[in-house]
């Protein structure tokens, strides 16, 4: 892995490859130069379209997305990959490849966004309307905010970079304070909320994407430096405002079927507020590789063998009631589960193991995508869904109360449960909200960040949730689940567990990262 200073300097020019053609046609990278690009509104649309997938997001999506979000949080296990085992047992070293890939990958996204923003400001002529320029910049700032949200939640104090060209002459940078990183994120989201349209082509970010993300960020900020179980009410009110505005005024609604939500024919449905856009037939390093975690070559493109076997934890399995089978079956397979949409031409697929289901979309024939390969799934996996925002809104209403029976909180919370076929709740508290988010958003990379959010203001509760888990695989036969032994000695979690150490390669390349963080705003 290259160091942050080298990676950020290299990505001064935005890559225009690796996104799906029907999202927008893109010129090749060789066609782009400071002289012939960013000259029309169409050029701006092409440039920002490249920020939704392909090479910018590939490193994050391929491994850290689920490994950090779901393995580290206790939802998922990889038994035979040492770096993933470290995440499960909380024995992470500075050389952990998944952690390094997360850092590098997210800063690649930031660099692409910065290059796009600065090129539009410098090169777009007066013939392009200010509203079109602002909308394009807003797309890039929204996506940059999403990347920084992941960075700050994983590492806390991280460098804020706005101009990557400066790293060529001054590659050594300090970390900035966590509070300033959040301030930077909210500034990006505020700009995006004001300048993105209310509607756009399928897959494009809108003001509702930015406002939904703002609700989630403010909910997180409400707990920052608030140990003792109480959250900042001003930030809770902001979370309630933005998430509530999306819930009540966006015109969006939950997709009717949770199970169908993850089928590729329903990519970019109205519930999706921000999804990565992936093309079939692209080479390694540009496509959606989540099907490399498939349990069987019978359900992969061209029957290619998958690379890594992932299994649900016994701890997550226990959360699903008998009525909650729709979400469970859409998230992970048990022996005997039948999936008619996988290998449909061969009569469907019947699972013979306990394994991951979500993101397993089947063969190229199943998806009517002849060019799809094992390393280029056509699933547009959502990083922000409306259901997530519904639950954020309910939690913002709960706020610092021990429980709530507020009508609006229950309305949106129970909309999520109704879609899953689960009985409605009559009262909410933090335990019910955390559990609901864990089941609804399983294997979408969210649960670790939910625990980090909780650790900001109630670290002991967050620690207890981790230490009380059964972070093990399980056998399943005749309707009975039997937990297996741990795959290694699990180090007890502490409040420090919720902040990753810096990758060793980054510290070697940039020793200033070891210094105390400095303010970004003066």
From TrEMBL:
UniProt keyword Transmembrane present: no
Domain of life, per lineage: Bacteria
- All residue ranges annotated as the RagB/SusD domain in the record: 342-516
Transmembrane regions listed in the UniProt entry? none
InterPro entries from the UniProt entry: SusD-like_N, SusD_RagB_dom, TPR-like_helical_dom_sf
Kindly list the places in or outside the cell where this protein is found, as annotated in its UniProt entry. Answer: Cell outer membrane
- Using the record for this protein, list the coiled-coil segments as residue ranges, or answer none: none
Tell me which GO cellular component terms the UniProt record holds: cell outer membrane
Which UniProt key words apply to this protein?
Cell outer membrane, Membrane, Signal
Per UniProt, residues of the SusD-like N-terminal domain are 86-219
Q: Is-annotated flag, keyword Nuclease?
A: no
- Similarity annotation: Belongs to the SusD family.
Tell me the protein's name: RagB/SusD family nutrient uptake outer membrane protein
Organism of this sequence:
Chryseolinea soli
């Amino acid at each position: 892995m290259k160091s942050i200073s080298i990676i950020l300097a290299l990505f001064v020019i935005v890559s225009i490859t690796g996104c799906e053609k029907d999202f927008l046609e893109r010129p090749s990278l060789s066609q782009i130069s400071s002289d012939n690009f960013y000259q029309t509104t169409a050029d701006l649309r092409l440039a920002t379209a490249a920020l939704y997938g392909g090479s910018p997001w590939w490193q994050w999506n391929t491994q850290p997305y689920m490994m950090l979000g779901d393995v580290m949080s206790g939802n998922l296990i990889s038994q035979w990959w040492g770096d993933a085992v470290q995440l499960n047992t909380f024995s992470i070293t500075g050389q952990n490849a998944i952690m390094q890939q997360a850092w590098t990958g997210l800063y690649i996204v930031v660099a692409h966004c910065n290059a796009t923003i600065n090129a539009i400001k410098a090169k777009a002529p007066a013939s392009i309307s200010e509203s079109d320029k602002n909308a394009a910049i807003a797309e890039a700032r929204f996506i940059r905010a999403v990347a920084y949200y992941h960075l700050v939640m994983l590492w806390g104090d991280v460098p804020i970079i706005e101009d990557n060209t400066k790293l060529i002459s001054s590659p050594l940078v300090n970390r900035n304070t966590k509070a300033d990183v959040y301030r930077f994120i909210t500034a990006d989201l505020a700009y995006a909320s004001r300048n993105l349209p209310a509607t756009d082509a399928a897959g494009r970010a809108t003001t509702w994407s930015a406002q939904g993300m703002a609700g989630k960020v403010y909910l997180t900020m409400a707990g920052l430096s608030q140990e003792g179980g109480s959250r900042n009410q001003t930030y809770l009110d902001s979370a309630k405002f933005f998430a509530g505005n999306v819930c009540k005024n966006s015109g969006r609604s939950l997709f009717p079927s949770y199970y169908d939500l993850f089928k590729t024919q329903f990519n970019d449905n109205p519930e999706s507020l921000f999804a990565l856009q992936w093309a079939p037939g692209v080479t390694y390093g540009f496509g959606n590789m989540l099907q490399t975690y498939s349990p069987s070559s019978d359900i992969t493109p061209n029957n290619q063998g998958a690379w890594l076997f992932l299994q649900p934890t016994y701890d997550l399995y226990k959360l699903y009631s008998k009525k909650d089978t729709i979400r469970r079956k859409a998230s992970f397979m048990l022996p005997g589960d039948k999936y008619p949409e996988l290998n449909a031409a061969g009569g469907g697929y019947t699972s013979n193991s306990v394994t991951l289901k979500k993101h397993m979309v089947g063969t190229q024939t199943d998806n009517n995508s002849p060019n799809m390969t094992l390393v280029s799934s056509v699933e547009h996996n959502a990083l922000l869904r409306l259901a997530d925002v519904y639950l954020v809104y309910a939690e913002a209403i709960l706020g610092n109360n021990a429980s709530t029976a507020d009508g609006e909180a229950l309305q949106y919370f129970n909309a999520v449960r109704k879609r899953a076929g689960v009985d409605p709740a009559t009262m909410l508290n933090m335990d019910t909200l955390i559990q609901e988010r864990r089941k609804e958003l399983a294997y979408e990379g969210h649960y670790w960040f939910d625990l980090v959010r909780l650790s900001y203001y109630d670290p002991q509760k967050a620690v207890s949730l981790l230490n009380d888990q059964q972070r093990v695989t399980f056998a399943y036969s005749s309707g009975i689940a039997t937990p297996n032994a741990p795959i290694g000695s699990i180090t007890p979690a502490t409040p420090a567990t919720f902040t990753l150490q810096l990758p060793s390669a980054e510290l070697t390349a940039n020793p200033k990262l070891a210094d105390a963080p400095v303010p970004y705003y003066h």
